[in-house]
User: What shape does this take?
Amino acid sequence: MNKESLLSFGAKTQSSNLDGFPSHLGCGVLAPSQRNIITRRNVNKRAKSVSEDDQTNYKRVVEDKRNYLHNVVQIILSGGGRDLPVCEINKHVTALANYKHSEQARLGDFVLNAIDKTFKDTVQQKAWNALNIDNGVTASKVFVEEFNSWNANLELLSKAFLYLDRVYLLSHPKKQPIQEHGLRLFAETCLGEDSEHFRLIIEKLIKSMHSTIIEDPGLIDHKAFISLMRLIGRIDFDKTYVSIMGLEKVLSSNYYHWNSSWMQSPTTYFDKVLSNLRNDILLFKQMGYNETAATFARQVLRHTIITDLSKVLSTCLAPLLDTTRSTDLGILIKYLLAEGETVNADYVKEVIYYFGMHIQAESGRTLESCSISGKNPIPELIKLRDRYFDVCKNLLYVNADKFEFEVRSALSKTISSADNQNFCLRQFSKYCDSFFKSKEIDIDAFISTLIAFFKLTENKSKLLSNYERDLSKRLLLGRNFNFSMECKIVESLLSEVGEGVDGSKLKYMIGDLRRCYDEYSHVNVDINFFPLVLQKSNWPDVPKHSTDIKLPEALQHALTTFTDYYVRSNKKHKYQQLDWTNYMFHQLTLSVHFDKGPKDLQVNLLQATVILSFSEIDTITFKELHERTGIDESLLHKVVSSLSSTKFPLLRRDGERFAFNFTFWDKAQKIRPPMSKDKENAITEAVKKAEKRIRDDEIKAAVVRNMKANKTMLYPELIGQVLMQLKSEGEISVTDMKKAVEQLIEQEYFKRSDDGQTLIYIP
Assistant: This one.
C-alpha cells in the first residue's frame, strides 16, 4: 500500500467508528438505528447473530486496519510520518484493540518487535559510527543527535498508538510502554554490562571532553559534554548504569591528573578545583545522581586538596579569604567536614590554623608598611580585623565562632610579639594624641577602635600604663584636653579591665580631676584660675622641673589666695603642702592686644613671667630680666629663645635690650611657643620611669590574680608562684616582689593571718 492510499484509509467516506463491529468487550456493537429501537421500546432482546457475509466483511476490515497500522509503524520508525493524522490513527488503534484482546496483544507485539528490529538494523550502527568519529565534540554531538532522532520517532509512535500504549502496554507486567522500551533498548546497548565496547568508548569520550573542560573551558564546546551527560541520565531509568560505568571515578581521575599543574598557580588553585567541582556536582544532580554527586565530591577532594592539605592551604588559601569569596570558603569547609566525618579526621582544624597564619602574616606586613610610611597602624589593624570578621560571618554551612576566635588570636600574636609590641604601644599613644588634636572628632568610633585594639593586646598592663602616662601629660600640661571625653574613654577601658590593680590609677586620676572641678572651680582669685590639687601617688612619675622664680604680683596673689582657702577648707590640709614649683605644670593663657588684633598666648609659667615683665616697661636687658624674675640664667636663656624664635618672634632684640614685639602677627588665634628641648627631655625621663613602674604593676597584677584564685596562700608559696609566672617576661627581684605584697596589704586587697605566714584574700 503506497503512502497516498495509506493516508486516505479511514477518511470521512469510510467508517472509522466501525458501526456494528463486534468487540471483545461485549457481544457486539449494534448500529445506531438498532440501539435507538431498543432504547425507545425499552425491550431487552438478544442481538441478532452476525451473518457470514458480515463476518467476512469484518475480517477484511480488520485485516485492512491491521496492515494500515503496521505500515504506520514502519513509516514512523524510519523517520517519516510527521504529517500523519495522529488522531485518526489512534481511532483505528482503539477500534482494533477493542475488537479482540488477541488483536490488541498482536498489535502490541508487532510494535515492540518493529522497534527492536529497527534499532538493531539501523539505530545501533548509526550510534556506533557516531562514537567512532575522531573529533570528540563532533562525536558527542552526532551521538546525541542520533539519540534525539530515535527518541523523536518513539515519541511520535507513542502518540499515534496512545490507546495501545496507555491501556495495554503500561499495565502489562512484562512489557514497557513504547518510548520506554525503545530508550531502554538504546541504554542497554550503549551502557549495559554486556555492551563493553560501546561503554568503554563512551567512557573514553566523556573523560577526554571533561579533562579538556576543567583544564580550560574555552577550548571546546561545553554544551556538547553537558548534552551527552544528560542523555546518560535520561536513559538510566533504574540509576544503575552510573555505577556500571564508574562515572564518578572517570571524572575524578581528571582532577588528579590536573592537580599538580593547578598547584603551580596558587592564586587560581581553588578557583579551578571548586568551580569545576561545583559544575560537575550540579550536572550529577541534574542527571538524578544525588548520592553519586556526594561520592564524587569526596573522591575529588582526596585526589586534590586532601592529598597534601598542608601544602595546599599554606600556598593557596589566601584568595579564598576575600569577602567576596566567603561562599567558596564555606563550600570547601563543608566538603572537608563531610570527608572528615567519613575518615574520622579534623580537616577543618587545619584550615583554621592556616587561616590564622595568613592573618598573622598580613598583619605583620601591615605593621611594616605603616612603619615605613609613617601611617598609624592601629586603625589599619582594626580594619583588618573587621574584614576577616566579615569573612567569618559570611561563611555558609559552618559555625563561624572558631574562625572569629582565630582572627583575634592571630592579631593578638602579631601585636604582642617581641618585635612589634613596643612599636604598637608607641603607635597607640600617638593614635590617642592625634585624635584629641583632630578637628573632626567621632568619639564613639574612636572608643570602638581603642577598645578593639585593647582587647587584642596581651600585655594590657603595659598598655594601660602607657595610657596613664599620656593621660597625665594631657591633663597636667593642659594640651588637647577634653575632660568629658577623657572620662568616657577611661570608663570604657576600665569596663574591659574589671576590678583589680590594672587601671586603678586611671580611676584615681579621673577622680582627682573631678574633685578639683567640684571643690575648687568656684574659688575667686581675681583671674580665671583653675587649680589642680592632685594626690601625687595616684599619678605616673613625672620629671621635676623646678626653679626659683619671682612671680608677677597677679600670679602670686592667685596662688596665695588659693593656698589660704585650701588650708581653711579642711583641718587635714594644715598638714599638707601644696607644691607649685614645677613650672611645666602651670599652663597660662595671656590675652595680648597686638597692633593687628588680639591673640591668645598659651605659655608655661616661666614664659608668662617674662612676658608680664613687659607690662610695666618697654625694654629691658637680659641682666635686668634675670634680676626681675629670679630665673636661673641658663633656664632664662631657653625661655627668651622660645619667645624670640623665627616662627614666634614675640620679643625683639636690639643689642643687649629686649622689647615686646607688638607688630607680631600669625593667622592662628592661639599661639603656643614651645620649649622643645625641655619637652623632649621630660618625655624621655617619663618613659624611663614609666617602664620601671609598669614592671611593678605587672607584679601587683600577678599577685592579685593568684590570691583571688586561691583565696588563701602561704607567703613563700605566693612569692614562688608569681616568680615562675613572670619569669618569661624578665627577671624579678624578690625585694620588688615583697614590696608589692606589702603595698597590696596596705591597700586592703588581702590581709595576714594571726600567724603572719598565711595571706587571706579580701573580696
In short: Residues 1-43, 678-684 have pLDDT under 50 and may be disordered. Residues 321 and 415 are 21 Å apart (CA to CA). The first strand starts at residue 587 and ends at 594.
